[in-house]
Amino acid sequence: MMRLDVVTIFPEYLDPLRHALLGKAIEQGILSVGVHDLRDWAHDVHKSVDDTPYGGGPGMVMKPEVWGPALDDVAAGVAGVELESSLPHLEKPVDTVESSYEAGERDERPLLIVPTPAGKPFTQADAREWSHEEHIVFACGRYEGIDQRVIVDAERRYRVREVSIGDYVLIGGEVAVLVIAEAVVRLIPGVLGNRRSHEEDSFSDGLLEGPSYTKPRTWRGLDVPEVLFSGNHARVDRWRRDQALLRTQAVRPELLADVDLSPADRKVLGLE
Ligand code: SAM
Fold first, then answer.
1. Which residues take part in binding S-adenosyl-L-methionine (predicted)?
2. Can you name the CATH fold of 218-269?
């Protein structure tokens, strides 16, 4: 069972986590999600969570006296509002699928993810690693972000990761949390029906995935590539690999530097 807690000033932004496969994971007892309104920890009459930046400049910065106690309480297990699956409730829960992760010597502190454009880029490798976590807490910034001392102080109770979902600036961390949570949760055993579907995804072998096709064989004058009807698995696999190589070379050539290329791969790429 994985537990996600999200601290935000817009709890309703996290509603998509109740739907589709994540909703099903909640229904099956694989996942539980608590959403916390940061303003519950604000003490003045206006419930303010931000203040002007030291050193001047535009915008506002989120206050440490609000964030600090909020993260203390969530680390200590304060539940917040529990998200219920949007799916029709099942008569009885499906057997919970336990993570296949073998716990070695573990740091018991929960993982705190702080989305920020100034963080390390979030990757599929992070998603894979974090899919083994038991408890992940997300801190959603707004305005110009959170007072940096909150992040430093949080290290006492959490393993902290500041991560960016891309080289652009969003208004708040909530959408980044949706992105990260979806990428992580789909990798928990039992969430996707077919395990192979994520083993063959883009990035899993360092390459982007090539094109996919379904019925009908001809649509608006466009044919599905002939090789896919050959029934020859080796030829189909080779064709898929070639398509992945060529797409990666065209769209993300820098990824090829980390891929083991066979002589056949190099030939397809025109490297020999
Ligand atoms: N002043 C900040 C900077 O330039 O680094 C930008 C703050 S942004 C307007 C407000 C919040 O949106 C951030 O605290 C973060 O939670 C979220 N955010 C914006 N862009 C993001 C990105 N690329 N990845 C992750 N979170 C992002």
1. 141, 165-170
2. Trp Operon Repressor; Chain A (1.10.1270)
**62 CA to centre of ligand 1 in angstroms:** 12
Provide the β-strand partners of residue 40.
Answer: none
Mean pLDDT of the chain: 93
Q: Collapsing DSSP states into helix, strand and coil, what is residue 45? A: coil
Report d(CA 268, CA 258) in Å as an integer: 17
Could you tell me the pLDDT band of residue 22, with boundaries at 50, 70 and 90?
very high
- Homologous superfamily (CATH) for 2-197: SPOUT methyltransferase, trefoil knot domain (3.40.1280.10)
* 107 pLDDT tier (thresholds 50, 70, 90): confident
CA distance 57 to 114: 23
> Tokens in use for 141?
């910034």
Q: How far is the CA of 143 from the centre of ligand 1 (A)?
A: 8
* Neighbouring C-beta atoms of residue 57, cutoff 10 Å: 9
Start and end residues for every CATH 1.10.1270.20 domain found in the chain: 218-269
**Which residues, in sequence order, are CB contacts of 58 under 8 Å at separation 6+?**
144
Read off the pLDDT of residues 28-48 as tens digits, 9 standing for 90 and up: 999 999 999 999 999 999 999
**What is the reported pLDDT for 199?**
78
- Which residue ranges does the chain devote to CATH 3.40.1280.10? 2-197
Q: Which two tokens stand for residue 228?
A: 């896919």
Q: Smallest Cα–Cα separation from 71: which of 17, 137, 14?
A: 137
